[in-house]
Amino acid sequence: MSIVPFNVETGELLYDAGYTISSPEQREAYKQYLREQDAKQHGRKHDFTNANMTHLHEVYDVLTTAQCGYLMLLQCYIDYETGIIVNPDKSPMTTNNMRQALQLQRKRSTFYDFLTACLDNGIIAEQDDATFVMNQRYHFKGAIKGAHAIKTYTAKIKRVYSEVKATDIGLIYRMLPLVHMSTNALCDNPFEKDPKKVRWLNRKELAEYIGVDPAFLGRRLPLMKFDGEYVVARIKVGSEPERYTMNPSVFYRQDKAPDDTLLAMFSVDKRKKV
User: Furthest-apart CA pair in the chain: how many Å?
Assistant: First the structure.
């Protein structure tokens, strides 16, 4: 039984002398093998959590925009197997640990308002042993479960949290249910398989979806940068209204590398300005 080598990112078969065509099952097995090898080589570099797009409205309907930003960071710390919110050393986070991670040491009431809202609405649960666990209905760690999940690359969120306003991260959180599978477009039909049928959202429509004023959104979007990269790209096609696409290096839905064009769209131009 033979396996045809292929590019794990593109799925392209790499024919060569001595190789024969394999079955789809064999190719998928080989692809999984390469994923595992990549994970061993890169470790935490590719660490991510998943959010269930179909349920997130239950979260942001009961949390403020800033509280959504706090949750975005906190879900980066959930344990792979248990869903418990843990410190980098894998010990369970206490409320003091959470306040430190969220940089709310001096804002006790702000933190407890957030935690109470999460506990009261089943977003986070406190267990009998005083550990806190994230409700996997909304956020979980591990393999993507179906087509309704979106990845958040945790290292990037942790790294920029101190530089980005919680309200801006919260606005991004509210956009997650709108991200299209293959294009990362912000649209009102994110599960549409035909890219030609994607219904992109303009600024007014996007603002309505996430519950903010269009003028406010227009001011904040150009300021939303993670590690020097824009989180949302604004696209202008002819006389059409602006369209928006999410940066795949921060949020992405597929279990393969993003399209080259999508990656290039967010690349940072490091040439000196003249």
Answer: 68
